[in-house]
Amino acid sequence: MEESTGRPPKKKVVVVGGGLVGALNACFFAKRGFDVEVFETREDIRQAKVVKGRSINLALSHRGRQALKQVGMEDKIVSQGIPMNSRMIHSLSGKQSAIPYGKKGQFILSVDRANLNKELLTEAETYPNTKLNFDHKLQDWSAETGLMTFARSDGSEEQINADLIVGCDGAFSVIRKQFLRRSRFNYSQTYIPHGYMELTMPPINGEFAMKPNYLHIWPRNTFMMIALPNLDKTFTCTLFMPFDEFEKITTGDDVIDFFQKYFPDAIPLMGVEALKEDYFRLPGQAMVSIKCSPYHIGDKCVLMGDAAHAVVPFYGQGMNAGFEDCIVFGEVLDQLNGDFSAVLPEYSRVRVPDDHAIADLAMYNYIEMRAHVNSKWFIFRKHVDNLLHVLMPNTIIPLYTMVTFTRTRYHEAVDRWHWQDKVINRGLLFSATGAVLGGSYLLIKNPPDISKLIIPAEKMWDRLVALWTH
To answer: At a CB cut-off of 8 Å and minimum separation 6, what does 147 contact?
Structure first.
């Protein structure tokens, strides 16, 4: 968002939720000159001894970086991340194969969730028109008047009036509960049958145990493990697996037997005893995909981030999509001169199809990551797509490139992907058919001397028999 000129508006914006999207939104609105207050249920993460919450690290890509750039945070956050240029596929045999994410120089970044949250809160506090409130739990709010009631940790209450309420309070949003009581509000949530568990791979002799500039994947068809590098030279390993498989593993020996069978190369890197202890530290955690529409009520309230569109983590776009919400809202705000009664419905109209598309893509990518990457056809198609992208950069753009390295609207990326897939598959079919017909024509026009082929064929057979019997 651009900085405002002239007198800043006096409108009060209340952001509910001080997580990643809430903290970034505070910066966006404060930069425009709004009076901003952030209310967070938890204590200040910057003072907390133990940071409770979800996964340790995240994949930051183009959309997220563009949002950070608009509030002057991109360079700082990028400098605190670790570039990952490729997937590194670990086969059962221990063989490792790299599959680049995009063209040379394109990468995603492994960033620490807690550190990013702290940096964004600290940045929000640098604006004199921003106030952060922690240990404040939302009790009630009115979509008609904007009156909000918060309970403090000491039992007292605080009331505040908002011109705009921005719900950034996560997948189990308290703000969204009021939406559910209204007619014509669509809502769905889906828990996938797989859970996730985070494990740690420590440094070896002070260095990374594996090559650091990769997102390591152990695909095993119905489940998988991934590993992302951290600045302290550890890897955060995440095991994604059906809950009934987690429940079968009840002892330390079961853990080692399971890893010996499916991830044998990881055991010496993680350590037998450490792995046994790590595995039972927390049970497998659930993953939910949430879709809803519209994202607003009147001119008073709008949902962003996981409150609007929680996605499963398999495209690395949850945070990036939430950060892009901030950009899109700012773009609509510019187009409609800051009139909330016009901005909020237009934001819903523009953003809902994109967020639904990335929710579906994230589900699809789980199948790709745990199963398709084992397929020779998948790897061949990746090479074909990348080659065509080099030859025709404006015509053929791989889906992953559109999603991760551009701001192409998510639903347009999906539509274009389907079209490209159809064209490329037909092209490959026609090429193969042409090759077969061309070869057949040459054989008919110039038939080989069969008698000359018989002797080499007999010699080859004799050699094969010799190899078989020795």
So the answer is: 141, 159, 160, 161
